[in-house]
Amino acid sequence: MATREKLVEVKNLKKYFNMGKGQMLKAVDDVSFDIYKGETLGLVGESGCGKSTTGRTIIRLYGATDGSVTFNGEDVHGKKNKAKLKEFNRKMQMIFQDPYASLNPRMTVKDIIAEGIDIHGLAKTKEERLQRVHELLETVGLNKEHANRYPHEFSGGQRQRIGIARALAVDPDFIIADEPISALDVSIQAQVVNLLQKLQRERGLTYLFIAHDLSMVKHISDRVGVMYLGNLVELTESDTLYNEPLHPYTQALLSAIPVPDPELERSRERIILEGDVPSPVSPPSGCRFRTRCPHAMDVCAKVAPKWQEAREGHYVACHLYDEELKEN
Amino acid sequence: MEHILEVKNLHVSFDTFAGEVQAVRGVDIKLNKGETLAIVGESGSGKSVTSKSIMRLIPNPPGRITEGQILFQGKDLAKYSERQMQQVRGSEISMIFQDPMTSLNPTMTVGKQIMEGLRIHQKMSKSQATARAIELLKLVGIPNAEARLKQYPHQFSGGMRQRVVIAIALACNPKILIADEPTTALDVTIQAQILELMKDLQDKTGTAIILITHDLGVVANAAQRVAVMYGGQIVETGTVDEIFYKPKHPYTWGLLASMPKLGASDTDLIAIPGSPPDLSDPPKGCPFAARCPHAMKVCVDHMPDHTEVSGSHKAACWLLDERAPKVEKPVEASVGGAR
């Protein structure tokens, strides 16, 4: 593990949104993790947990309130001149959730894909530009006849392929995929996930895969982080997370997923969480999960649990795994 | 078993500028008393149109039922007038919609919306209806029911709103509840709460449920019988065990194989190539033929009949014809192997 090269380092990242009237929405509150070169890190959680905000802050679509993001040894949020920023933008790309909203309906597929190529001057002649677009279309499983069409002529799965081709156009190292398959049908989801994995193998890409569908995240990710109300509560290898979840929230989340197996479903004991996720404007004191946690103790209301390595490579933020507390 | 609802050879079409779109093409459904029947399929497969037709909620124009019968307690709903349907909706058959954010009226208190049906269908007095509404809110697990009654939908969270929608749907003790993607807009932990609630309520009230969903996990959790829809037709029906453990239709195989399994090791997902057929120009033969790895010449030209596999299990596929080559379902499609 230690020999692996860090590509992205997120340290104590915070992103607050000012709601007016002195209220702060703490969308991401003190999150730290690393992403290694060539891996897929999954980020899961329910709506409003801050997973998308984390992704968007990493790629500098939002300015961070506090904390730092380091990409390839360089500070993402630091001051940069235009050329430097352009260089940085080329290395990091994003694929969005809604394939209907993320493509400009008034541009042809060719121009959508080539926009990055034009900005970064990656093609010297018109022919070269077209050549690259055609290659990219074929890479993502479309054909070159599609280049002159408009987004509305495509189905959801095909549009997501166009979005992927656009991201690949500038030859990035790191791609943030924010719920790339949530809007697609099951049989189409598998096509897109297989494509993403194929591209990773061929080009050595690093992914941050954000989704709420845990079974898909487990399938595609090497490591998975679980978020709850702006905090990262657990992070480890995906198999370990699914086989031995430590945090009570992860346990509940896993047990809540219905599996496509009727016999297993009938015999399964579910942990059903009560109530709803509290508002991120006024989160509970101490551990944010304590209001719904079946194992909540007195200390959980007073002290926020530390982010610690409970086992090798298995990070968790929960008082149940606090060594100091156990001794007392 | 007694059928409470029987849909026979239902055809529904929409007139669009591009021509007639045949969204539902000959669907047969039998619903038994007190059971949960899941209708699964991808977007555009016709599952929502089928359920809305049963409620006669297809706007006309552009939509119309071109053929078929919807027999509810021996009477054909397809021939009912709008006035007659109003007597049925909400009292005999009610519906839960996908999006709890938009299916409630934002300008009416939650209590008033629950009481609406009670006052109209059951001619209750205001005080009777209020008492029943409080009872219903408690039944669906909303704490502090008396105070909540006077609140507006925006004061409820997503999961709570869906509970309110369920309370409205169950207010008049309907015989059939149609739930169109009831948990799709909700988070998994809330989804687990709502599914549990629906099962619990079914035990108490004996309502038959038609559950429309694209999530096979939800199906395995909540349904007793399953109908798989593709291209406006039902391609396979059976009990949950038959569909999940002994599926016969290649589309069902594909659907099961394209789901990642939590327990399984990492292999490539088995994707179904291509995309669903365009129903403004539906294929002559089997709708799945273009994407089917086992397609034969006959599949392209002739629609297969429903072949009976067992008393409760039917599939529409030429592979089940005695003249067809024997094709076994691929191993990856089996859920049993993943455990």
Layout of helices and strands, plus pairs?
The complex is a heterodimer of chains A (328) and B (339).
Chain A: E1 6-20, E2 23-36, E3 40-44, H1 51-58, E4 66-71, E5 74-75, H2 82-91, E6 92-95, H3 109-119, H4 126-139, H5 156-168, E7 174-178, H6 186-203, E8 206-211, H7 214-220, E9 223-228, E10 231-237, H8 238-243, H9 248-256, H10 262-267, H11 298-302, E11 308-311, E12 314-316, H12 323-327
Parallel strand pairs in A: 3-8, 3-9, 6-7, 7-8
Antiparallel strand pairs in A: 1-2, 1-4, 4-5, 9-10, 10-12, 11-12
Chain B: E1 3-16, E2 19-32, E3 36-40, H1 47-54, E4 63-72, E5 75-76, H2 82-88, E6 93-96, H3 110-121, H4 126-139, H5 145-148, H6 158-170, E7 176-180, H7 188-205, E8 208-213, H8 216-222, E9 225-230, E10 233-239, H9 240-245, H10 250-257, H11 297-301, E11 306-308, E12 314-316
Parallel strand pairs in B: 3-8, 3-9, 6-7, 7-8
Antiparallel strand pairs in B: 1-2, 1-4, 4-5, 9-10, 10-12, 11-12
Helix pairs in contact in B: 3-4, 3-6, 4-6, 6-7
Structure explained in plain terms:
The complex is a heterodimer of chains A (328) and B (339). The longest helix of chain A is centred in the middle third of the chain and has 18 residues, at 186-203. Chain A has 12 helices and 12 strands. By secondary structure, chain A is an alpha/beta fold. The two termini of chain A are 33 Å apart. In chain A, strand 11 (308-311) and strand 12 (314-316) form a beta hairpin. Chain A has one domain (6-284): P-loop containing nucleotide triphosphate hydrolases (Rossmann fold, 3-Layer(aba) Sandwich). Chain B is an alpha/beta fold and 339 residues long. In chain B, strands 6-7-8-3-9-10-12-11 form an 8-stranded mixed β-sheet, sandwiched between helices. In chain B, strand 11 and strand 12 form a beta hairpin. The longest helix of chain B has 18 residues, at 188-205. The two termini of chain B are 33 Å apart. Helices cover 30% and strands 23% of the residues of chain B. Chain B has helices spanning 47-54, 82-88, 110-121, 126-139, 145-148, 158-170, 188-205, 216-222, 240-245, 250-257, 297-301, and strands at 3-16, 19-32, 36-40, 63-72, 75-76, 93-96, 176-180, 208-213, 225-230, 233-239, 306-308, 314-316.
